[in-house]
Amino acid sequence: MMIGHISDTHLGACAGSEPEREGDHYRAFEEAIDLFIREHVDLVIHSGDILDEPRPYGTAMKILVEGVRRLREHGIQFLFTLGEHDISNVPSTPHPLILQLEGLGAYIGTGKPYEVGGATVIGLHKYKRVERRHLLGRLEEIGRGASSLAGKRVLVLHQGVKEAFGPGAELSISEIPAGFDYYAMGHIHKRYERGLGDGVIAFPGATHWVNVDDPDECGVYLVDLSGDQASVEWVRLQNVRPKMRLRLNASEAKDRIEELANKSFHMKPYLLLEIVVDKPLDVKEVEKKLGGGFIIKTIKLIPAPAEGRTYSSRPEINLDEELRRLALEVIGDEGVVDFALGELLQHLSSGNLSDAKEAVWRFWRAWSGGGGEGDRQG
User: Fold this and answer.
1) Beta strands in the chain (DSSP E)
2) 92-106: pLDDT as tens digits
3) Is the pLDDT of residue 145 over 60?
4) For the whole model, what pTM was predicted?
């Protein structure tokens, strides 16, 4: 059996804010669909964050349905779980479940085994850090039943692991149950793979970078389960917009800007430009010169040190990290701090008071032992 493993497509990202970049995510997704059809995979597994927003633009759903329908027309089944971007804080049916309602895909995020061909696939939807206790209980339950699953066994999760993501992750690899041939993971936007028992745990990363700090190279996995052990091949996608980060000195800025303006690329790079200046510089003139060949994210002017003065090399303060550190000193609970500075702050800053109230209620129930979100049923 050959599996195509895709994750973090974030369809609809940049919609309404950067129309040119919105298409990046659609093209990368369509390229992945083309690859899976060309390679004659038997099954495609999407491990979450299918959409960028739980209330997506119509184009995002159109691209998703059309892509999955193409797979179905070639006899390729589509299985998926949900990431945090797919799930609304207001109780409702997540949009990706339309695929199941239309008979185009199967939702496997409930923890129930799904047999397909010579394999059994089982998955969970995304659990937040505050729901970690409930998540560990579900994983223990899955682990106890792993040996009884038929054929090749695949576990699908949309969770961070500390070994790849750092201390902010919900799990360590040692907490993921053994007994599976392949672990189709999502959530982390960089490629990561390693052995787990007799199987392989793998994050393909995003199909297209979402944030400027995401890796420049993006791709998907082709997973061959026909042998005794899973054989994985990561395939880089070509329809990914390049990013350029440049820091220029005043003496070279004019020539380098002219050089960049005359350079051609297969796709407009996303440009983050810093220029160290010792005299005023017309930023609008720079934007005019480069705007035709680049998507300009920022042009930042940095004053050059005055002659005879020395400046300390003290690193720039990361305001987000400093705010989190201070909050932890006062509150002392990482789960509460992450919720307040993440999900709650996002709702409040956008004026979504009803969503904020619902999020606080759900967080309180989970934090106080009143139960997690429960399983998202198809």
Assistant:
1) 2-6, 43-46, 77-80, 106-107, 114-116, 119-123, 152-158, 182-186, 192-196, 199-203, 219-224, 231-236, 243-249, 270-277, 295-303
2) 889 999 999 899 999
3) yes
4) 0.80
Distance CA(158)–CA(84), nearest Å, equals 8
235-254 burial, b at 16+ Cβ within 10 Å, e below that, comes to bebebbbebeeeebeeeebe
Location of structure tokens 């005055």 = 306
So what's the pLDDT on residue 312?
A: 42
Over residues 71-89, the pLDDT tens digits come to: 999 999 999 999 999 998 8
3-state secondary structure (DSSP) of residue 33: helix
Hey, which CATH number is domain 2-236, 3.40.50.1370, 3.30.930.10, 3.50.50.60, 3.60.21.10? 3.60.21.10
The answer on pLDDT for 302 being more than 90 is no
The whole-angstrom separation of Cα 336 and Cα 205 is 28
Residue 47's contacts (CB-CB under 8 Å, 6 or more residues apart) are: 5, 6, 7, 8, 80, 81, 83, 123, 156, 157, 158, 184, 185, 186, 187
Q: Who contacts 138 (Cβ-Cβ below 8 Å, separation ≥6)?
A: 111, 124, 127
Placement of tokens 């993501």 in the chain: 165
Q: In the block, which residue shows the tokens 């930042």?
A: 300
CA of residue 5 relative to chain centroid, distance = 14
